[in-house]
Amino acid sequence: MITINEVSKSYGKQLVLDQINLEFPAGQSVALIGPNGSGKTTLIKLILSLAKADQGGITVNDKDVSEGGSYRKEIGYMPQMTRFPENMRVGQLFKLMQDIRPDIPENAYDLELYEAFDIRKMEPKMLHALSGGMKQKVSAALAFLFDPDILILDEPTAALDPVSNETLKSKIRHAYESKKLVIITSHILSDLDEIVNQVVYLIEGQIAFHKSLDQLRQETAETRLNKIIVTLLHKMNHHVENH
Amino acid sequence: MWKITNYIFRDLVRSWVIIGYVLLLFTSSWGIFSLENEPDKAILNLLQIILLVLPLLTLVFTTIYYYNSLEFIILLLAQPIDRKTLFKGFAAGLMGSLALCLIVGMGLPLVFHFPSLQSLMLLICGLMLTFTFVSMALFISTRISDKAKGMGTVLLLWAFFAFLFDGLLLFFMYQFGAYPIESIVLGLSFFNPIVVARTAVLMTTEGAALLGLSGAVFKDFFGSPVGLAVSFLAFVSYISIFFRLSWKTFEKKDM
């Protein structure tokens, strides 16, 4: 569904992404991980065409992202932490989003998270008065609202309470099991191993590895993702030192 | 586009800065008219507010609002909406709410106390200045990603238009006072929207008589229908040039 072909991006002199090639078909749930500044957020921005690649091309459902924004109809995006307009209410935000998506009829909305997170109760609240976790619930419900085929979630679970965390995780699992594509970035690796089946590890703008979780488990004889990553990084460092 | 405008507008009219701005305009306009017996003088006092407070508030408020909304703008841009539509909607919301402040805060007292050509001219110039400075602030804040630098630039721009420009112009006039430079000064004055507004309003009042010889040249020009049309045209070009530059920047920008 998403094809990234030889993409490079630099900000000023700093090369943030260096000739990245990636292919994400439907039914995958991809963990996009890597240290700070490795280019995860930039990659997401390029997919959403919030920034433009210096080189290479990205296609989403065979549409080039540089040719108009209609391809984003199929994408639900949950940003890391959003600062919403101060004097807007939660209900108004949902109304606004629905207003800019007249192509989706009201009976096609996916209200599962909206109801699970009890957002109807939050509707009269001002957005600036919401806590970090509540904002994240609102963002998550918005990302799933139009039942998109692709979900891009940036640190989705960072501020959620345990119950909401489980709700969101089961929603994500359900999404890729029903042949949607999910891309998640997170530093909380322990949250990821139940909800991803692919791992892309970025270091300094390059792909250190892109493998399925099953394969990684076999290679490292570990089950937990955080252990797997530590083991692999050890191996890679060793490899570098030996040369 | 108007959907975005509608929501931005509704967010803005509830902000305390906007409410404070209306109250400030309203109380000062009403107050000046109550204290001043001659409406012409009151207009000149109000002109000072429009020339100093309005540009500063418009520039600073627009810049802060843009930077604070950036994350929300990014969220909206992840939707299937094109950048041009979003940006125009956003700018229209800002211009609309600031214009409404002026119409309510200053327009109402003017209609009540002194419904006249001068008042109309003052209000029109105020609106034009609002649109001009919103466009300029958007141009700067889309160009400069760093909030502190953007803010600094905007303040510098205000100081330039409000004080430095006059100083430089005066310096120039003293240096070349021996030559017939009225028409050059006239031409230069079009590079500052505040000066255009000031002259346009001043020429409709009797204050013009205070300007001496160059005042006579100005009065000949600005007092005529041609002069009015040129001032209006100057404003329209400020607004369209800076607005166009800012959405062109916004369209290509890496968020």
The count of strands of chain A amounts to: 10
Q: What is the gyration radius of chain B calculated from CA atoms?
A: 19 Å
CATH homologous superfamily name of chain A?
P-loop containing nucleotide triphosphate hydrolases
Radius of gyration of chain A: 18 Å
> How much is the average pLDDT of chain A?
90
Indicate the low-confidence ranges of chain B by residue numbers. none
Walkthrough of the structure:
The complex is a heterodimer of chains A (243) and B (255). Chain A is α/β, with parallel strands linked by helices and 243 residues long. Chain A has one domain (2-80, 148-242): P-loop containing nucleotide triphosphate hydrolases (Rossmann fold). In chain A, 36% of the residues lie in helices and 25% in strands. Chain A is built from 9 helices and 10 strands. In chain A, the strands form 2 sheets. Chain A has a 6-stranded mixed beta sheet, with helices on both faces. Chain A has a 4-stranded antiparallel beta sheet with strand order 2-1-4-5, with helices on one face. In chain A, a hairpin with a 2-residue loop joins strand 4 and strand 5. In chain A, helix 8 (213-220) crosses helix 9. Chain B is mainly alpha-helical and 255 residues long. Chain B has one domain (2-252). Chain B has 10 helices and no strands. Chain B has helices at 2-12, 16-35, 39-77, 83-113, 117-143, 147-175, 182-189, 193-204, 212-222, 225-252. The radius of gyration of chain B is 19 Å and the shape is globular. The two termini of chain B are 20 Å apart. The mean pLDDT of chain B is 90.
Could you give a short description of this structure?
The complex is a heterodimer of chains A (about 240) and B (about 260). With about 240 residues, chain A is α/β, with parallel strands linked by helices. Chain A is about 35% helix and about 25% strand.
